[in-house]
Write a structure and sequence with these properties.
This protein is mainly α. It is built from two helices and no strands.
Length: 70
Amino acid sequence: MKTQFFASVKRFIRDEEGAAAVEYGLLAALIAVVVAVAVSTVGNRLCETFKTIATRLGGGAAVQCAGPLS
């Protein structure tokens, strides 16, 4: 009985069939976080650039950046 139990535990530990799916899920989540941070950073910089251009053209009050989740 113990031998069969330990053999089952060893098979379970060696089985890596679901590991690839978990790794791909974690990789996809990491990529999503990186993309979200990059888009937010680029968006903020782009808004600041438009504000600078509008100010130099004399219409700085017209440009308003949307906040997060707006």
